[in-house]
Amino acid sequence: MLVLAYRPFGALQPYAETGPVFLCAKPCGAYSGAGDVPEVLSTSPDYLIKGYSADERIVYGTGAVVPSATLGSDVEARLGDDRVAFVDIRSARNNCWQARALRPKAQFF
Q1: When you count CB atoms within 10 A of the terminal residue's CB, does the N or C end of the chain come out lower?
Q2: Residues 24, 92: Cα–Cα separation, whole Å
């Protein structure tokens, strides 16, 4: 496993958080279960989620630590807000970036 700093944003700005991300040591395929919460996001009891606008700014009021059991519906609720273009999912404890869910329905990558 490799660990490196990752900033999943196009430009530096106050909301462009950088955090650790862990990579598999061996090649692995990309997640392809569109609409389903990836299995890897069931390994923690909870996650930090935040909604962002199309210009990559946090949409205030969308951030929360949510239980993994309701992660899919919590992400869907934020994507139902017209101001939210995507939701980032991070570790609730270490702030590691885990995934990004895109509109129109939670498409994780």
Answers
A1: N
A2: 21
**Which is it for strands 64-67 and 86-91: parallel, antiparallel or unpaired?**
unpaired
Query: Using only C-alpha atoms, what is the Rg of the chain?
Result: 13
This model's pTM is above 0.90: no
Give the contacts of 27 (CB within 8 A, at least 6 positions apart).
none
Q: Where on the phi/psi map is residue 76: left (φ > 0), alpha (ψ -120 to 50), or beta?
A: alpha
Q: What is the mean pLDDT of each run of 10 residues along the chain (109 residues)?
A: 83 84 76 72 90 94 96 94 94 86 67
* Residue 78 three-state SS: helix
Evaluate whether 4 touches 20 at the Cβ level (below 8 Å). yes
Domain ranges of the chain: 42-108
